Amino acid sequence: MTAHDQMRAMLDQLMGTGRNGETTKYQVKFNDPKVCKSFLLGCCPHEILTSTRMDLGECPRIHDLALRADFEKAQATKDYFYDLDAMEHLQAFISDCDRRTEAAKQRLAETQEELSAEVAVKANSVHELAEQIGQKLAKAEQLGEEGFVDESMKLMEEVDELRKRKLEAEQEYRNSMPASSYQQQKLRVCEVCSAYLGIHDNDRRLADHFGGKLHLGFIKIREKLAELEKTADKRKEEKRKTRDRDRDDSRDDRYRERHREQYVGGRELDRRSKRHRSRSRDRKEREQRSDRDRDNRSRSHRSRSRSRDRRSHSRHSSSSDKRRDRDRD
Predict the structure, then answer these.
(1) CB atoms within 10 A of CB 228
(2) Which of 48, 92, 112, 157 is a Cys-bridge partner for 217, taking CB atoms 3.0 to 4.6 Å apart?
(3) Residue 199 contacts residue 125 (beta carbons within 8 Å)
(4) Residue 163 CB coordination number (10 Å)
């Protein structure tokens, strides 16, 4: 990844998809089913175990730092309960890993020489001390790199003490079995990451294992799963209550929408009253105009009738005068 890509990823992680008016390259929102909910909470095994012996490849769901930033902002105002989705994802993954661990133990039991109960206890003692040394060495190196020198030196003193105890345990284990059998590599399966550990592994090899990305990645996943399972029952109950409340709110909204026209009150009553008065005035004005038009038509009709009567009377008088004139002649 170039410096430009790293800077872009940092800005996406801080500011989300709204940076500079941009949208996510996947054209989805964080609550899309195609987005990995475990990634949004920072615990997707595909991301944690990348570039390790158990690299799972690319996650089938979307990973985008900008979407994670969007989710963190939205989660501050609304609970999406994605921790429950992440818990189910991690449970399925860890269950599969535990099955592989048990299968590896079974293979070792079938292929390695069976030890007596007494010798097995001594061998396990050596393994346990070796693991403690490896873990403390890895932690001491980490503290030294971070500048905590005093804490690192204190752990190294504990490592020296464990080394002495391990030498004594190895001597007891060696004396309890034939030399030919002791030279065989006795393996043990790491309970955390299912890797094989040998009873003759040196401190450097153990430190590399316990401080390696694979082992630390599994620790992170298992600790996150334990944290989520601790509050799972409470969170499921909260999710159920929230879902019921949302369903009731949705039902109320539909009821209000359906009966909105039947409800009259407050400002709506005022508006309807004004609308009714306005319609009454309009109707009264129309009736008055209709009455005036009817009266006008009636007067006009009477006027035309009188005019016709006068013309008829005038014509009749003129005819009578003419007849009288003819009679005189």
Answers:
(1) 20
(2) 48
(3) no
(4) 14
Residue in 89, 109, 77, 12 with CA at minimum distance from that of residue 45: 89
Question: pLDDT of 125-165, one tens digit each?
Answer: 888 888 889 889 999 988 988 899 999 999 999 999 999 99
Strand partners, 188: 197
Q: 3-state SS of 25-66?
A: CCCCCCCCCCECHHHHCCCCHHHHCCCCCCCCCCCCCECCHH
**Distance between CA 238 and CA 228 in Å, rounded?**
14
The Cα-based distances of 239 to 44, 84, 268 in angstroms read 22, 9, 38
Neighbours of 291 (CB within 10 A): 10
Task: Tell me the H-state helices in 112-231.
Answer: 117-145, 149-175, 179-183, 203-210, 213-230
Which residue is listed with tokens 């293979």?
107
pLDDT higher at 224 or 246: 224
- Say what angle helices 232-258 and 213-230 make with each other, to 10 degrees: 60
Residue by residue, DSSP assigns 229-297 as HHTHHHHHHHHHHHHHHHHHHHHHHHHHHHTTTT---THHHHHHHHHHHHHHHHHHHHHHHHHHHHHHH
Amino acid at 190: C
Cβ count near 94 (within 10 Å): 16
| 260's tokens | 């909105």
Backbone dihedral angles phi then psi of residue 231, each to the nearest 5 degrees? -110, 15
* CB atoms near residue 131 (< 10 Å): 20
pLDDT band of residue 110 (cuts 50, 70, 90) is: confident
Q: How do strand 187-189 and strand 196-198 relate by DSSP bridges? A: antiparallel
N-terminal to C-terminal alpha carbon distance within the chain: 139
Nearest to 18 by CA among 6, 35, 34, 30: 30
Q: Which two tokens stand for residue 41?
A: 């909470």
Structure tokens at 40: 């949004």
